[in-house]
Write a structure and sequence with these properties.
Number of strands: 11
InterPro entries: Phytyl_CoA_dOase-like
GO molecular function: 2-oxoglutarate-dependent dioxygenase activity
Strand content: 15-25%
Mean pLDDT: 93
Keywords: Dioxygenase, Oxidoreductase
Helix content: 25-40%
Shape: globular
Protein name: Phytanoyl-CoA dioxygenase family protein
Low-confidence stretches: 333-337
Number of helices: 12
Largest sheet: 8 strands, antiparallel
Radius of gyration: 20 Å
Distance between the termini: 51 Å
Length: 337
């Protein structure tokens, strides 16, 4: 009975980005999902995203828009002018800011916040991350006027003997359009754990909706990450949905990839210890809002400062015994890429 006192909160969560089948009995209800609850949320979220993107289309070129609408990602080689890229790289590789890392399987993901205080001493990087091209591309992909959370991200693979990193399984981050971006600061070869994306999988067709319905009906028996709303998918299921073969992004430094990560993607398994370094941007908002602006992360006092606040909130939650924060502090002498 005490558990069901939370029912009003679970019900209100249907109108938000909440995605966990396991944590919300209404979202995870086999009875309701058999009757189309999850599919209805997916369809409405994607229709609203298409509506918002039409309003944001003027912020990017016709070619970028066509590429994204077809594939679900935008690939831009030599994104920055050589002199600008070298200035950004010099600032990044001299950065010695506060760092956090997460260990998943045999892989460490380490992040340094590129927040307003950090960027105050990085004029070249600040100009890129505040520039019209970076913000325009991320806004269109996310379907909102984006104020992304930006990080310096370092991915180190094969750091120990352990199970594979779960990020190497093809998956969708959530049920609605959302954005991640990678500006690669190092070359990424085939065996270095490159980004992988299934072209066109950001579009939900009838076969995808049927698959989503089946997954939502049996979500409680799925693996941990799928049950929390980040659905894993097999190659056979992808073929049955009619999607193209996955593309692996072995790229040179100064390449930008912006992707809608509601499409299926992963990190290709690395066959040797490798290090990948990039500027990583992330944006996600309530998918059921009809407007493109009014982002809390863009408010005075919060703009450019959301990442440190997010980390402090996660630390507080752990201190109160609510949930362990997987992002652990890194000693200063480990921050250098």
């Amino acid at each position: 009975m005490l558990r069901w006192l939370c029912a009003p909160i679970w019900l209100l969560a249907l109108a938000t980005e909440a995605k966990s089948f396991r944590d919300n009995p209404i979202i995870g209800s086999a009875f309701l999902n058999k009757r189309g609850l999850h599919v209805a949320r997916v369809r409405l979220a994607h229709r609203l995203a298409a509506f918002r993107r039409r309003r944001l289309a003027c912020g990017i070129s016709n070619q970028d828009r066509a590429d994204f609408d077809r594939d679900g990602y935008i690939l831009k080689q030599d994104f920055l002018a050589p002199s600008v890229f070298e200035a950004v790289a010099q600032e990044i590789f001299n950065l010695n800011g506060d760092s956090r890392e997460m260990l998943q399987g045999d892989t460490i993901t380490r992040r340094v916040s590129l927040d307003a205080d950090t960027l105050r001493h990085m004029p070249a990087t600040r100009a890129v991350l505040g520039g019209e091209q970076w913000l325009g591309l991320l806004s269109y992909a996310s379907s909102f006027r984006c104020h992304p959370m930006n990080y310096l991200q370092t991915i180190m693979t094969r750091v120990r003997r352990a199970s594979d990193d779960p990020q190497t399984q093809l998956h969708s981050d959530t049920f609605h359009p959302t954005v991640k971006a990678w500006l690669f600061l190092t070359d990424v070869e085939q065996g270095d754990g490159p980004f992988v994306y299934v072209p066109g999988s950001h579009r939900v067709n009838r076969r995808r909706l049927a698959w989503l319905r089946r997954q939502s009906m049996h979500a409680q028996s799925l693996d941990r990450l799928s049950a929390r709303g980040s659905l894993r998918v097999s190659q056979d299921a992808l073929r049955r949905m009619g999607y193209a073969e996955a593309r692996t992004f072995s790229v040179k430094r100064n390449t930008l990839v912006v992707a809608d990560t509601s499409g299926f993607h992963s990190r290709d398994p690395s066959n040797h210890p490798a290090t990948r370094i990039e500027i990583w941007g992330y944006g996600r908002r309530n998918p059921f809002l009809p407007w493109t602006g009014w982002d809390i992360q863009g408010l005075p006092g919060l703009k450019g400062r959301f990442v440190p606040l997010y980390w402090r909130v996660r630390d507080l939650g752990e201190a109160l015994g609510l949930r362990r924060n997987p992002w652990r502090r890194v000693p200063k002498n480990k921050v250098e890429p």
